[in-house]
Fold this protein.
Amino acid sequence: AFGEMLPRYDNFVEIDQQGRKDAWGIPVLKIDCKFGDNEREMAKHMVSSAQEMLESAGVSVNEVQGVPSEPGLAIHEAGTCRMGIDSRTSVLNPFNQCHDAPNIFVTDGSSFPSVGVQNPVLTMVALTIRACEYAVEQLRKGEI
């Protein structure tokens, strides 16, 4: 089963405050992400619903994973680069361009506050096309 992880202020990504760097000397990220009560309750409901459906179909359930997988192990994770017009509350502008680094465009699921159970790839493709058109326009104007 797949469920939506709601955006939470407590979940964030930041540059590691200890100053750790990767093999190329680039500062590493510290990811602080945990499930909230909503996700834990939703997982319980998904397990009980699946058990009910399987048992009513005559399937014998031998083992159940009691807790959800760690955040980030499912496909199409989203968040960390909120899109918005205010650089104080968002990382990206409406064209997926970084407020603080205008030569960087982020067009994956990072700009989404959350993703439901549907496949968001076509939306990512549309946002990428729009961001590329905007970037070309900005390059022609000498803005980036």
About this structure: The first helix runs from residue 37 to 56. Helices lie at 37-56, 121-141.
